[in-house]
Specification:
The chain has 171 residues and is an alpha+beta fold. It has two domains: 84 residues, Ubiquitin-like (UB roll) (Roll); 67 residues, DNA polymerase, domain 1 (Orthogonal Bundle). It contains five helices and six strands. Strand 1 and strand 2 form a beta hairpin. The structure holds FE2/S2 (inorganic) cluster (2 copies). The site of one FE2/S2 (inorganic) cluster (FES) has 12 residues, from loops.
């Protein structure tokens, strides 16, 4: 993230440049707009969901400069110069990641409202290393809330990845 945002004298908005799912672009944004609202309303990436809007549920999780973050707690202007990944960027050509395939195979979602947040949190986590035990799986899931309480399927999905590929759980 950079500090080099520029104030538009007429609009009282700020110009930011971000790379979103591999596409670099410059946008004029309201100073107080959250990154979640920016992604959903300005960029049209509505796969990032909003639940609590105060940092508790994890539904709005995206990856910002390699780290899973809650986009409802971050201003869009803070993403100036950053690399943003959203759930839409996981399968840009329709080819699901191993994690998405595992979610599908193990029925790891019910209504699906929480799913994009879980996928982004777990994608960031799996880049750090495999999840080999149920305790590790539950720890990895602990920052996000599923209102349908569909955690068992997600645990099974994560452990199936460990069984299938300990070295490349996420791609
Ligand atoms: S909507 Fe951001 S944490 Fe709940
Ligand atoms: S599947 Fe419904 S909130 Fe998680």
């Amino acid at each position: 993230m950079s500090e080099a945002v520029e104030l538009d004298p007429i609009e009282s908005k700020l110009w930011i440049t971000t790379t979103i799912n591999g596409a670099k672009g410059t946008h004029l944004v309201e100073q107080r707009m959250t990154l979640a609202d920016f992604l959903r309303k300005e960029i049209g990436l509505e796969g990032t969901h909003l639940g609590c809007e105060h940092g508790s549920c994890g539904a709005c999780t995206i990856i910002l400069d390699g780290k899973a973050v809650r986009s409802c707690l971050i201003l869009a202007v803070q993403a100036d110069g950053a690399v943003v990944e959203t759930v839409e960027g996981l399968a840009p050509k329709g080819e699901l990641t191993q994690l998405q395939e595992a979610f599908h195979a193990h029925h790891a979602l019910q209504c699906g409202f929480c799913t994009s947040g879980f996928l982004m949190s777990l994608t960031a986590r799996l880049r750090e290393g495999p999840i080999d035990t149920e305790a590790e799986a539950r720890e990895a899931l602990s920052g996000n809330i599923c209102r349908c309480t569909g955690y068992s399927g997600m645990v099974e999905a994560l452990l199936s990845l460990s069984n299938e590929s300990n070295e490349d759980g996420a791609r």
